[in-house]
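Narrative summary of target 7.
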Amino acid sequence: MNSMLNMRGALMGLTVVVGSVVSGGVFAQDMSDGAPSITIRYSDLDLAQPSGVQVLYRRIATAAKVVCDHGNSRELARVVATTKCVDHTLSQAIEEIDVPQLSALHRMNRNHDVG
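Modeled conformation, tokenized:
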């Protein structure tokens, strides 16, 4: 299993890529190609434990919010675009990591948000 996740985002389209090099810190932001990118390390987490899965989920959710940030706007279209971007990025990242417990936590959170 890889212990890093590289998230890249643009206004509506996002690509999640598993990388092989980390440039310091839990989150390393790179905007060299114009799209925000955040690398998430998780080699410090035990993903066999619920607490490790929860920490990773929070890291991914935080990174998705940063990557998808369209500024503090009350404009409905921007709020909707940001929400869709975060949801899409989070789902892609979790699918890419492919840890059943993380997927289950994501499904539970999505079902809770809907209800």
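The chain has one domain: 4-114.
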